[in-house]
Design brief:
By secondary structure, this protein is mostly beta strands. It has no helices and eleven strands.
């Protein structure tokens, strides 16, 4: 059974940094693309960033391009999201996710099948 456990959320001031971590278990982590999604109050869950199974290619939503960096450590079954220059509009619950099929790109929201429980990120102005 696939399990994704996020951590690292919290309250940060406008312009500050935060790093999210997701530990995966239940299958061979290194074979699957991983990603981060977020859901703000009253909005649908949206794609934030994705990274392919090898870690060589990463993809970002336009709204966070240049501020967030996704990375993975396949030896530790861990996914990261480094968030810099955070803004109040980044406030949301952030979810770790993984695709259902192996060796994918993780480029868009299509293909993601498993999600974690989420971690709250709040940016104060």
């Amino acid at each position: 059974q696939v399990q994704l456990i996020e951590s690292g959320g919290g309250l940060v001031q406008d312009g500050g940094p935060l790093k999210l971590t997701c530990v995966a278990s239940g299958r061979t982590f290194s074979k699957f693309a991983m990603g981060w999604f977020r859901q703000a109050p009253g909005k649908e869950r949206s794609f934030v960033a994705g990274i392919d199974w090898s870690g060589r290619s990463a993809y970002y939503a336009d709204s966070i391009q240049g501020r967030f960096t996704i990375s993975r450590d396949n030896a530790k079954n861990t996914l990261y999201l480094q968030m810099n220059n955070l803004r109040p509009e980044d406030t949301a619950v952030y979810y770790c996710a993984t695709e259902g099929r192996p060796y994918g790109l993780g480029r868009t929201r299509v293909g993601y099948q498993y999600f974690g429980q989420g971690t709250q990120v709040t940016i104060s102005s």
